[in-house]
Amino acid sequence: MVHMTVFNRSVRRFTTAESFRLFMEGLRAFQIHEAEGSKHSEGDPPNRAAMVASIDRASGCLSECVGEYPNDLLPRYYFGIVLGLQAQTEQSLALESQLDQPNSPQTGNSAADKFFLEAATQFEDTAGRAGRGDLRVYALYNQAQVLAKLNDVGNQHYWDQALQILNRIKPFRFTGLPLSKRILARTYAFFRSEEQLVAEFAGKIADGSEGATGIAASAASALADSKALELQIEMLDGFIKLRNAARNKDLRLGELP
Amino acid sequence: MRKRKRGCLSSTRHNTLLKVATLQVVILLGLSGCTGAPRSTNGLASTTGPDTRRVTFVQWSNPHLFDAGSDRHAEGIIEEALDNQSALNWAVLETNRLVTAEHRAIDFVVITGDFGLANTKLSTLADPPSKNCDCPKRKPGHEGPIDPMSVEQAAAQVAEELRGLVVKRVFLVPGDDDLCHGDKNDMHRWAEFVYFLKKEIADQNAIREASLKQSAPQKANQKAQISLQVDAPAGPDVVDLTYSASSLYYDLKDSRILSLLKDHPPEARPNEPPTINGIRILGLNSAYFGHANDHQKQATAPAIAAEFESLKNQIKPGFSYLIFTHIPGVNATVIGNKSKLRQIAGQPTVGSSEPEEDNQNSGWVLDSNLKKTWQSEILAKTEVVGVFGGHFQTAKRESYPQNFETSKPGAGPTATKQWVSPPLAVEDQWSLPPEKTARGFLLVTVTGNGVVRVSPQDGENVASSPIWFSASDQKAVMTGDDKLAEARASELDGKWSDAAKSYKDALDSNAIDSRTRESALVGYVHARNEMRSWWWNSTLANWLYMHGVPALVTSALVFGLLLLYGFLRWVRAFGFATKIIQILVVPRFRGRAVIAKTAQMTPNAPSDEFGAQILAAGEEIRTRLLQEQESWAARHITLLAPASSSFNSLVNSIPKVGNTDVSSWAKFVAALFQTFQWSVDSGLAVFQPNSCVGTTSPTAPPPNNGTLPQGGELSAYAVLQWGWFVKNSWRRSTGIVSDRADLRDLARTLAELILGEAFV
Lengths: 257, 760
Fold this sequence. Notes:
The structure holds two protein chains of two kinds.
Chain A: H1 17-37, H2 48-68, H3 73-100, H4 108-129, H5 134-148, H6 156-168, H7 179-191, H8 194-200, H9 204-207, H10 215-247
Helix pairs in contact in A: 1-2, 1-3, 2-3, 3-4, 3-5, 4-5, 5-6, 5-10, 6-10, 7-10, 8-10
Chain B: H1 11-32, E1 53-60, H2 75-100, E2 108-111, H3 151-163, E3 169-172, H4 187-222, E4 237-240, H5 244-251, H6 255-260, E5 275-276, E6 279-284, H7 294-314, E7 320-325, H8 368-379, E8 384-389, H9 413-417, E9 418-420, E10 440-448, E11 461-468, H10 481-493, H11 496-508, H12 514-531, H13 534-537, H14 539-570, H15 573-585, E12 592-595, E13 599-600, H16 607-627, H17 631-634, E14 638-640, H18 645-652, H19 662-675, E15 678-687, E16 713-722, E17 725-735, H20 740-756
Parallel strand pairs in B: 1-2, 2-3, 3-4, 6-7, 7-8, 8-9, 12-14, 12-15, 13-15
Antiparallel strand pairs in B: 1-10, 5-6, 10-11, 15-16, 16-17
């Protein structure tokens, strides 16, 4: 179900300063969680308790923010992301439990699916209110992704729904840029092919190399993001189809990528 | 018909009156204890009093009733005639007002010529004289002046005006426009006019008196016991100061005058001139002094010489004289009059001691002998107090009555004794707006000491002020008027002590006239009576009398303002107005603010550290938003530290420029600039365990080793404002569990709230 706001407020506005504070607290906890999870050294492995605490805090703050200030879209979007992470955590815990006790019944999938469905609802809400900007595109993509990750065999119609969502996503160009840069980038891209533009800055933007901050760089970066999203959509689409084929036992090993 | 006494007394009668008056003065002085100086009459006065001789008169000039509109067209001609007529009406009413409303003792009215009689038709006499009396005034191609009327009609018109005067003595001298082309041979025109004027006044008086007598018996029948018989108000006594009729009749044997006055021979010129309060009045017939070409000059020179000789002979040592004439003996350019400039180059004139070529614009055209006679034998005499003329028409008000500031040094009596009256007629000023014109008459007071002049030090003072013809009422300023005005203002304010003081100041002045003294005396007595009343002497009643109404009005005003304030608060108008001002004035907060030094609300609260942590938290927020690629938000939010010490040292190093402390001004401008930008005021308090907010536990002093008390509480506030407009304020508290971490969390919370305002 798509909820529409009464007036077309900016998608990145907050109702009050308190809403922004809750969002920032949630975002901070989310980033701490990601930073903890990104540790790879053996001497300093990820701290599970810290990760759980941070994801719980992120979820709590964002949940409170969404509950108190339902019109604010950015907290809702990040709340969906956090819910997706929580679902993945549940899946990981379930897999860990299954590996430890192979004969015990699987119980984690239903908990993870609840998170995924809740996340899908948040993304759907966000996309419905976000207008035509990049937030809507990302929200739709994320919605499709969490629907695709549902494990229950009975949830096939969600996979179909995810495919429909992916089909609805139109590739965007430069929507992440400010208006002035957007106009300049469009003008610049009019005279250069997109492939040439992306190739010219390949590697430079990520490295922060010299000459990677001008309007051409911004246009190239925006185009790269767009291309990346298109590839992600293609991959997700293929993933869902493969999963569907595997479920229907139509998949043969030779067809696996 | 009753006959009024003439202003000019015979010497026999004068002596008789002198003796009687002297006796009266002696008796009065003996009875009154010499407290006041008696009024003088006919030159008789006490030498002990300061105000023994005083003459007050008004001078009208240039009415131009009968030759109006010379340079006008169409309706302008009659418009100018009506304008001039109304000016004369105004002069009569204003003079009456001076007498009746302002109680000025005006002794006479003098009209210094230019009725415009040159444009009148002389009557056909039964014994027609052989001279040509036609005087075509209208020039070829001109529409004006007005059609001529007969001299009898002109006299009747002037008589109507003069009969309305409450001043019963009128002196006349002829003007150049009262003679045909200013020709001396036309003097009979003036003499006829004066004759008919007197006759008209007498006839109109008779008619009025007969009318009153006719109506009185009817009313007497109705109320038999009360006699309603009243005398008709007498018309003014008119005196021609040039005695033209007498001269023409007895000396020159003018045929028209002989024919006109054969049944009523004119009175001969009196041996002594009219004397008013000890000052003698003389007339100088200058009507033909200014219209001389070479031919006329030779013809008129003997007459002018005779005129001067006659005038000179009338001036006797020991007396004071006022001379009235039409054309004054001053240079026309001196008073800025262009239309009256003489175009006869090289004519020797009076009015300046400078060479003749400088005098071509003078009012008079005289040869050097006559000029010398006038200046040294008449004007220079100390007996001559003042010479009053008219004739000029300049619209420069500063030129009247005596502004000869452009006269060359050494002009002598020309600049000090001669006075010029503004014209009544509009003439050359018709194109100017009313407030720019200079029309009106003179109010003159001549005062002096002693009855008999013995030396120039006993000289008289002449105070002359113009009263301008205007739609608005005007009042001349005389000595004592200011004190009377002050006193009356104090009376209106109820300040009786001030009023009495002002009245007393007026009474103490020696220069005020009798009417002013009388008014001041009455006012003083009234003020003193008020001051003797009980309420004036009661402090409370006096205060209430003086300040009761203002206090009541002020109280009502304050009460009304309080009511208004309450009402506005009730309808939340102030909040609404503040919001409107905020919308109009305060810029949008976009996340950039200056963090002021954090206030330390409790001892040992780490306020400096807290302020730094707010700044650090702001930077952390920025970094986290950038990490999420939310550059839309991160790119403009910044929390800044307040002005650094380097700026202060830079400002302090600015040297002084002269006496100006540039450094202080720079600090002021910087402070002003910082005031009108977004800023954050913050404060931090550390409370001990088990203590309430705002109190500290007496048993647990705050630690001073930099650590925060475990179990205590951190409380902080932040106020986001622009100028004096507060956008939002926050207060947050947290328990102290882990020392610095709690301080950081509190700082981050406030930083998030502050920056959150940028996204609301």
